[in-house]
Amino acid sequence: MTRYERVKEILAAAAGSSRADYGGLGPFWNLPLEQLLGASLYGVRLIAPENTPHSCCGRQAAEATMSRSARSGLIAGLRGEAPFDGTQFPRLPWGGSVVDETNVQVIASWIDDGCPAEGAGEEIGVFEASGAITIEREGYSVYEGVPNEYKYQHGELRQRVNLDCMTPSQLENLRCAFRELYELNKWPLDTRNYNNLALIHQNHCQHGWERFLPWHRVYMYEFEKALQDLCASVTLPYWDWTLAQYPKNPIPDSFQAFLTDRSLEFLARRDPVIPADEIKLLQPLVGKLWPTPSAFFDEVESTIGAEYTVGQHRNRFIDALLEANPLWYPLRYPGQFGGSTINDTIHYHYPSAIDIEEIMSLRTFRDFGGGSLYNDSFGFLDQNPHNTLHIWTGGMKPAPKLPADSAQPSAAVDRNKAVRVAGRKFHTRDDLYSQPDFGDMFKIGRAHV
Ligand SMILES: [Cu+2]
User: Does the reported pTM lie above 0.70?
Assistant: First the structure.
């Protein structure tokens, strides 16, 4: 294998199944070498030109002393250095996994040696990506924090991270914390549980006036504290929905549904069991991502048959998906608007960075964040991006697929089965199996975090 082939292989392996299109470049490692050498990602040269212009001032003078690889956006990107540190762009490859330093070195030295297309027959060894320590916790692999994974040290102010820049171990830790919050739902009187936190929003959320921002800020803080009680290292990430993959990708990859090998073991065991032959057919689905419940169940239907997409079988699939990824939520139809688009259905476009610039340029707080009367003095922020992202992520249930010979309407939605605990309505597990017409995020009164 030539060094150039090895570079392409490292990048392709790290990108995995990511659909990031890099501002139109596509998977740039597959570009003809000539093009790759001149390619820019949003103005950042992936591979720096060989010679820097001589200059005696500032940045250019400093850059003149740097190696070609150190000046290349690709190397900074793979290491998660500025501007790929989450402040402007996520670490490279987008939506994939982190390339370990040994392999970054392979690419850097290839660049410093002039990006040779041929290896002159030179063979190089394949480096194994490893280093992460896996610990088993109740059957789930949770990775231990890798040193310097977070930008703060113990005792310093913690920084929230870009959801799309999180390392696999940071994500697994966050999932671990959410899994435990759901687990606490078994004890309704324990106010630390997920349902109670969601009810705080449902019952007390402040909108349409100046307390919209401060109330949610404190709410997010308390929610984050609840997560940290269970997994001390986590912070609540933020979602930069202005990144290039949105809204084509309707929801962040880390929030999408997926099955693991363990999910299949679970499905083979739980009542009603899925026979071993069918479980075998499901095996190729492990690791695939589905943005919506309908996309997932369509694939189950085409793989093992429609009978597994209804009733208790459907519920067991939802249990399995929630266990595998508690950041996924079954009552969410992101980007689905009854076959139409957000623009046609809601008469509002998906929010953009320009919207935010305009909102930030408003000259009074009243216009920006709301006025002094509850639910009566909405700021612009309240409409967009707040309402638009609620609507976008919540979405609407797609029309049911009726058998060709049947004209039966779908059964009425059995929604919000609730029990009363200490005088308050408390959601039951069955709620997660219901299929309401609108996703929970669509209706602000039902929006779980
Ligand atoms: Cu709210």
Answer: no
